[in-house]
Design a protein that fits this description.
With about 260 residues, the chain is mainly alpha-helical. It has 15 helices and no strands.
Length: about 260
């Protein structure tokens, strides 16, 4: 009975958030994030908490276009490439696209770690860090598994990288992610990779809209909704940069063959 009651609360919670912010588009996985807030905070406090996360942390995932999330995954792939070219080469040869980490970003890993304490630890990190932190964590998870991945049969690499070992040390993952964040700032990573998120991406507006808030200040949800009302226009040069990014990575592989 308690489970059914919580499910009803979760449904009402999501409906209220989307009703208050009609420009937000529900995606499979948003309920996982909302569930964590509901279980920890209770419905009354979980609604504003999850609403702020939707507007100021995962807004790119709640758009009509999948392009911003696709770019975040490519930024993750670039991070791994800069840190470990050998691992990147192996993944490329095995035809592994960065989409193996899609659920990690969309659910804040709540669908991938069975240990509730690990999930809550990550949520604590994410709400106290830049909105890019899930990308750094995803990169760290992959980099820390390099030895395991490099000896895997190429036919099984995809299933291997998709499933995070439940015994991974969460503090070690976090430490590696923080190290990556210090080494590759959001702006530097976009510039170095040539993968530019749109100006109103939650990645590029987080510092101005959330990161500078002082205790007791209220975030500007109207501004976040104004971002959502704007159409994301794809520039011609973006296609050229994607082609260049793909070509460069393929050349790296061919040089190694």
């Amino acid at each position: 009975m308690l489970k059914a009651h919580k499910q009803q609360e979760l449904h009402c919670m999501i409906v209220e958030i989307l009703w208050r912010n009609p420009a937000l588009k529900y995606y499979q996985g948003f309920h996982d994030i909302c569930t964590c807030f509901l279980l920890v905070l209770g419905k009354k406090s979980a609604i504003p908490a999850a609403e702020n996360v939707a507007l100021f942390f995962i807004r790119d995932a709640m758009l009509e276009s999948f392009d911003p999330i696709s770019k975040q995954l490519r930024l993750m792939s670039s991070l791994i490439e800069y840190e470990d070219p050998e691992l990147t080469l192996f993944l490329e040869k095995a035809n592994i696209m960065p989409y193996y980490a899609l659920s990690w970003l969309l659910t804040w890993f709540s669908h991938d770690f069975e240990d509730y304490e690990k999930v809550i630890r990550l949520f604590d990190l994410f709400i106290s860090s830049h909105s890019m932190m899930p990308v750094y964590i995803a990169s760290a998870v992959t980099l820390l598994r390099r030895n395991e991945i490099l000896v895997a049969d190429k036919d099984f690499v995809h299933s291997l990288v998709t499933r995070i070992p439940q015994d991974m040390d969460i503090e070690r993952i976090i430490a590696r992610a923080i190290e990556l964040e210090r080494k590759y700032s959001v702006l530097q990573l976009q510039k170095q990779s040539g993968i530019w998120l749109h100006d109103e991406s939650v990645i590029n507006t987080w510092d101005k809209d959330w990161g500078r808030l002082q205790w007791g200040q209220v975030p500007d949800q109207l501004q976040a909704n104004r971002y959502l009302s704007h159409q994301i226009e794809k520039e011609e040069w973006e296609e050229e940069m994607l082609i260049e990014w793909t070509r460069r990575r393929r050349e790296t592989i061919e040089d190694e063959l």
